[in-house]
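Researcher: We're teaching a course module on how sequence relates to structure. For the next exercise, students receive a sequence and then see the predicted structure as tokens, so they can try to spot secondary structure elements on their own. Here is the exercise chain.
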Amino acid sequence: MMRSKYLQSSLGFDGESTPNQFRAASRYLMLCCFLAVVAISLPALHAAPQQNRAAAVPQIEHFSPTAGVVGSPIAIEARLMTPGRSVVYLRLYFKSIKEQAFKFVDMRPGAQGYAGQIPGRAVRSPAVQYFLVALLSDQTVVSHPARNPYGQPFEVLIRENAEGSVESEQAPKAGTEIKAQPKSSAQPEAKPPLEVSPQLLDKIEKLERPMAEASEADSSAAFEVSLGASQIEPTSSILILSPEPFSVVAAKEVVIAASFMTETLIDSTSIKILFDGINVTRKAEISPAIVSFTPATIAPGEHTVTITARDQLGSAVGPQSWRFEVSGKTEKIAATNSTRRATGVVYAETRREKFSGRSLNNTNIGADLSGNTGPLLYSASAYFTSLEDKTLQPRHRFVINAGLPWLNFTLGDATPYYDELILWGRRVRGFEAGLNTGWVNLHFITGETVRQVDPFYVAVPNPLDSTQLITQRQRFGTFKQSLLGLRPSFGSLAKRGFLWGFTVVKVRDDKDSLPTDSTNVVQFGRVTPRDNLVLGTDLNLALDRRRFTIKASGAWSLLSNDISSGTILQDSLQKIADVDLPFNPQDFNSWFILNESTSPLDPRGKTSLAYQFTLHFNYFNQFLSAGYKRLGSEYVSLGHSFLRNDIRGFFINNRCRLLRNRAFLTLGFERYNDHFNNLDGRPQTDLNTWQLGLAVFWDPNLPSLNFNFRNHSRDNGVDPTTVTNFAQEDNATRDLSISLNYDVTAFNFDHTLTFSLTNSDRVDNVERVPGAVTGDAASNLKSISVRTRYQKPITSTITFATNDNDVAGGQSLFKYNMFSGRVDYDFSQQRTESRSFLNNFSNENRDLQLRTYAAFNTVSASGRTNPAAIAAGAINVIDYNQTGFQLGGSLQFRQQHEFVLDLSLLNYKDRGGVQTTDATTGALLFVTNPSFKNSLLRAYYSFRF
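Model: And here is the predicted structure for the students to work with:
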């Protein structure tokens, strides 16, 4: 109590302090925080990042959600530990179980790491798959899951979103006063939480707690959690515009408004809005994109809004419910037709890192904005980082979107998804436009996909004459590359049940964007400008309310690998390839440069043809998917960076719903033939994969189980006695993963227990001579974590993991153990009898929230290689310990301003190295790996509006 009084007096407050004094002090405190982060950020914004490849193994920390709701975005958070390296980007790849290709979004820096979401349009029953990929400043790529993320991604069960029982009552008459909802006397008072934390997991827990306490009599509608329009991670396809959840507003400022996700085609006649349990739909302004309602009068106190709708296919959207409080006295509210709303966030992050005595500074600044003016929707996003480097591709990002439900424009960095065979997720910096009428649609995009990067030359001594220097190229340059895409289509899959589209993509390097190498340059290879033209069509059919869908697509490509010499003459082409074209290739230079480097010169072999089709069957509790694809060896689309060619085969899998959708049994089989064209002489390789999975979600009071087994075999059929230029390949990899998640209450505390087991065992079936290195490999990863929420404002997380690795049948062994613990303390939830300054300010004014945390982690690793397998007798010894400490906290004011300060210390002690034997003396030589220390100070500020 004495300390509390001293704190109040030292800040100029006493027991009779006025709210204005609190506000003045808070503004002064927020101003100091903002100036602090700006002062730290500005020197680092122009700092050139330094890299060191001797850093410890990077790690991604992430808790996977176990379930989602159809149409509701799924929030994803992750933390990265990358000592000595900065994070260029962290991407979230996702797809529904019905799709074959992943899409991605870039996660942005947040208060507690990185935050992103799987969009609601991708959240479809029965499941969603996703994984994380990070690119670091030393070009290291880290994924989570670490092994085979494409083949074994995280999987989230998606439940159907049943419409809430929002039975309507009589609409109020004009001028009727809307009174505050009375609280039920049959239950304890369900108070709203003190704040809405920007830290997503804590935020959801705080918002759900009062809802769980409310009885069924107090909530006639299903109550969905919402983060509000001021947050960029909505949890529903219905976005709250105003008032913000749990906010306190004046009566004259009450305008109830919400918007629908642009990807969701809403049936405007199905929209229903309840205000304090009363159906006010007839008094509201409704469109397929916006719904708003302004009550004539409103009483002070707490009020509840619930909005439900259905899309054009009849699927439920919502319900979305939230509460807010009206201050002051009952007032009449002026009628308004304006639905203009804008929300967003501006943030800045700076990292001041010392790695082994070297400075590694990094600063990121960004902003996100979204809103509407009537039916016009707009959004903008910008991200700037000190990791921008002219010798690399752009790391800055910016994009502006605006449009109506049927017309939209994009300026900046776009990632179009036109066709899975042609243009899929390629970053294009330029202009995009789309017209969607439901009968005739047109999409167009043009811009730069790759920027020019000059080659790097150095002067080195001439090996023939040491007195002279010659120029040597150490880094290849990159030609500037541009893309033009056009996609007309007919119909609408959502409205009409069919969509027939045509896609044309043209990608060309600017051959004049790189300087010509001088004659005295020592060249090790050559970079050539390319030209690519791809044509394709696709047809989508959805029957019986999407229970049966068919998708077929085909494409054909031309690729010229070197356009520096221009277009070939018609007569020359006939002599080279025996192809008699009915036109002169030079007449089509603007579309494609045809010459002797073009692949294919003769399209009759169909080696540049690609096609695929898939079907989905959703009946009798079975979700059956099957498909076939064939991509020729010369099929190339520069609009799809990760497309694999020279492969053909089929897949079939079935997911069976059991026990009233509490269990899902999955069976799948794939058979593909790699290098089937055999144009380059490589042997054909048979790829066979079968998979068994079981997901069980019995009850919220019981643990959930996810079991997956995958067997993948490769066999190229090479006979080593007759084929010597290619190695024989015959192996099978068996992957097993088991995860258990359990939310349980024990000792009056809420716990979340997570256990996972991942085992991978590759068996090499090739017969080898005794002592030869085999292709066997085994990995066994086990982890367990416990997150506990105490009655006091404390949350703890403890994780233990161990990993055993055996490569080449015991010739290389490696093992590591990891332990981490973290404790979070939220001062804003204190419930003490003392009238401290922080309690007064936080609990009564709900303006200030303070959270702190402390964490500890340690990693120990050991292992070595077998010298019998090493020709030189060298032994690689692994023996290191990594110990880290983290301490930090966040200060939030009025749910708009947040300042975060983190300090991380890491000590990496390496006793391993390389042991060799001196060839002359026979003495053992040991070169120890370097140890290092790392310190990181991170400051983060965000302003939400």
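Model: If you want an answer key for the exercise: The radius of gyration is 31 Å. The first strand starts at residue 59 and ends at 61.
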